[in-house]
Predict the structure.
Amino acid sequence: MPTEPSLDDLRRHAVARTLFAPTTLPAAIQRLGFVQADPIRAPARAQDLTLRHRVKDYRAGDLERRYARLAIDEDCLVNYGFLPSEHLALMHPRQARKAWDAETQRKAAEVLAFVRERGAAHPREVEQHFSHGSVKNYWGGSGSASTQLLDGMHYRGLLRVKRRDSGTRVYEAIAHPPADDSPAASARRAAALIDLVVRKYAPLPAPSLTYLVRLLGYGAPHLAQQTQAALRLAREQLASCRIDGTTWYWPADENPRSRRHAFDERLRLLAPFDPVVWDRRRFTLLWGWTYKFEAYTPPARRQLGYYALPMLWQGHVIGWANLQARDGRLEPSFGYVAGAAPGDAAFRSALDEELQRMEQFLAPR
């Protein structure tokens, strides 16, 4: 009997460990550790599309509606998203790679005093009060200098997102407690960050683990050396196997060969940033085809569509769907890896049920 997992074992493990039984919103975020955010709605934002599979009776927008009452924060990890507030201590006080000049520091101090006095501030209020003007944004266009400054203050831990008003971040002042900067404490934080992302995205091919640790330079740039050292230790402590020339890693207390990792009959349309989908390298190794996120690809060059949602059924990602919601009704289009949909009644029934769940998810409360 084999003692190491097969690729099929890793496939079942990857699905079962993250597509857990639906629970409460706080419990789901706690278990995921981090939920990536994206502003595109097609037909809903990525964070909502991710949570709908993992939260009982979840509706689009529930995260934003309930955010202020939950012990969670919008912040950076390997990218931008939502995470339990307790994880902030692993990254804050954050030291940005690029230091502000004296003029920017002066403006930030003025804005911070303004936000503290008001209790909370919308970017529009900050701009109306200070008239910072416009600056070149990340995409090469023109953006509000006040919004950019607020983003920088949020990143550096001077502000937190208190809530959103119609999708726009409303900020309040925050003071993170001083961090223990001793070598031992810094090493512990780096190890905890790696544990967080491994538990989020495992099982991981070795190159993906290295890539994720490099991406932690976004959430904790000041711990770059420590995370690299922690990565070397993690490779020794994590469970691993080698399949077809690729080394895979997962938490040492998990067993990919467990019989508990059985596929169910539910068909799921997954967000482009769902943990099952996020690692494109792993996706190709596990499912045997290349998924592409093409929202920013010119239409003529798209192969899957503007916002293709991978279709998981019976343990395989067999295709994708593009969904448009009009007048409360879904207008779906589908593509299949095999070129055509499975012909059996079980598939048609499972797809109909998933579309019904999607319509309920999109329905207003």
In short: The chain has twelve helices and 14 strands. The chain has a mean pLDDT of 95. Residues 29 and 83 are 7 Å apart (CA to CA). The longest strand covers residues 316-326.
